[in-house]
Amino acid sequence: MTIQGDVIFCDDIRHEITGKALLIGCYGATMNVSGDFPITIDRLMLACRLFLPAAHIPASTKLMVYYPQSSDEPDFEADIPMPPQMSGAELAEVPRAEEKFDPRLQVTFQVELEDMDISSEGFIRVRAQCDDNYIRVGDLRVLKLNEEAAPTEEEPKL
Description:
Blueprint: E1 4-10, E2 12-15, E3 21-24, E4 30-33, E5 39-53, E6 61-66, E7 76-79, H1 88-92, E8 104-118, E9 122-130, E10 133-144
Parallel strand pairs: 4-10
Antiparallel strand pairs: 1-5, 2-3, 5-8, 6-7, 6-9, 9-10
């Protein structure tokens, strides 16, 4: 089983006492910005999830974020705490949606990025390195808003 991940980019994340997270100002595939580059994004929140095979939890996991103009060096980097390895008896107790699938764990965490200097259009890329595996967690395209052609109607609802 492979390690997978995903991310939701948003303006804010708040938490209720029931444990629910409220994601405010969620972006789809694109963040449209007004004005000319370079710009500074005051705050961007990342709601991240990694899905791990319960039998093979990585010893070390690191999250890396690259801004559009980045080189190969991440603009933000943080270690992600991992749960301890599980024994055979513990693995048998991991809840499964369907018995035919191997048990997996979900590691959920939030990241706050502040004062992001973006010098050009491109992608904010979120990656994780789990031991020797490099995982694409998600991407957000940053585009300059064409204010003359800005949409005047809401997006269609499905």
